[in-house]
TrEMBL record:
Pfam families: Mito_carr. One of its GO terms (molecular function) is phosphate transmembrane transporter activity. SUPFAM superfamilies: Mitochondrial carrier (SSF103506). The keyword Glycoprotein does not apply. This is Mitochondrial phosphate carrier protein. It comes from Musa acuminata subsp. malaccensis. Solcar repeats lie at residues 22-106, 115-199.
Length: 264
């Protein structure tokens, strides 16, 4: 949601001041609901993806991987880790979208001599750093639940078991890989969204947002969201590898991963 995406429309938005506490709350709740429910819906694919990454020889394709999971662990295995997806990515989405708007206002006031792209980059990076701190404990438990069937059934028993076995550091073992994976894409995603909205209003719709109908505003937002989501597609290999190998240092994994990317 961009700076001009609220406070200028009709209906219940009317009268809401942009960058007010109510505005930040709406952005946070919207991010929480959209991120949490979206990730919940694709839990079966996430279960398969994680298992393909940690055991690629066994799960070597989508259809055979799904078949093996259902055959060996039952249909319910496809929804293993759903709570981590719902609550973890809900927390991440709330922090990401709510804090993005907050930081955008703060940096706009402080960095008055910089262009808008710099503001978008700094705001999205700052929000993502905090959002990943909120996500990381849920992600740590989720990955273990999905890849180690005997580890735990979900978050309720997974949190204390992980703490007992690895301590507090176990919850944040994958934090640096999360930052390395998510920060570049978050920066691209938010800046792409903001610039796409501007381009669509100026060059396609050729109207100011406040002069457009609700359908036009929704269309612009959806197209910009689709474009930014496509740019922000991300890979999870390094974080899953760290979770799978507790004894492996994050620095070693990250170095090997980047070397592999360069060589390939």
């Amino acid at each position: 949601m961009g700076a001009g995406e609220a406070g200028k429309g009709n209906g219940w938005w009317k009268g809401m001041r942009v960058f007010s506490p109510e505005y930040y709350a709406v952005c946070a709740v919207g991010g929480m609901l959209s991120a949490g429910t979206t990730h919940l819906a694709i839990t079966p694919l996430d279960v398969l993806k994680v298992n393909m990454q940690v055991n690629p020889l066994k799960y070597n394709s989508i259809f055979s991987g799904l078949h093996i999971l259902v055959k060996e662990q039952g249909p319910s295995s496809l929804w293993r880790g759903w709570a981590g997806k719902l609550f973890g990515y809900g927390a991440q989405g709330g922090c990401k979208f709510g804090l993005y708007e907050y930081f955008k206002k703060m940096y706009s006031d402080v960095l008055t001599g910089y262009n808008r792209s710099t503001i978008f980059f700094a705001s999205s990076a700052s929000a993502q750093v905090i959002a990943d701190v909120a996500l990381c404990p849920f992600e740590a438990v989720k990955v273990r639940v999905q890849t180690q069937p005997n580890f735990a059934k979900g978050l309720i028993d997974g949190f204390p078991k992980l703490y007992a076995s690895e301590g507090l550091s176990g919850f944040y073992k994958g934090l640096l890989p999360l930052w390395g994976r998510n920060l570049p894409f978050s920066i691209l995603m938010f800046s792409t969204f903001e610039h796409t909205v501007d381009i669509l209003y100026h060059n396609v719709v050729q109207k100011k947002k406040e002069d457009c109908s609700r359908a036009q505003q929704l269309g612009v937002t959806c197209i910009a969201g689709y474009a930014s989501g496509a740019i922000g597609c991300e890979e999870h290999r390094i974080s899953q590898f760290v979770y799978k190998k507790p004894s492996c240092s994050i620095y070693t994994c990250w170095t090997c991963y980047n070397l592999a990317v360069v060589l390939l």
